Amino acid sequence: MSSVTKKRRKKMSKHKHRKLRRRNRHKNK
Description:
The protein starts with a helix and ends with a helix. The protein is rod-shaped and about 40 Å long. It is an all-alpha fold. The chain contains one helix and no strands.
C-alpha cells in the first residue's frame, strides 16, 4: 500500500508542477 501512495503522490506533484508552468506562461503573455 505504501508503494501505491508514493506513486500517487509523485503523479500529483508532476501535475501541480505542470499547472504552475502553464500559469506562468499565461502571465508572461
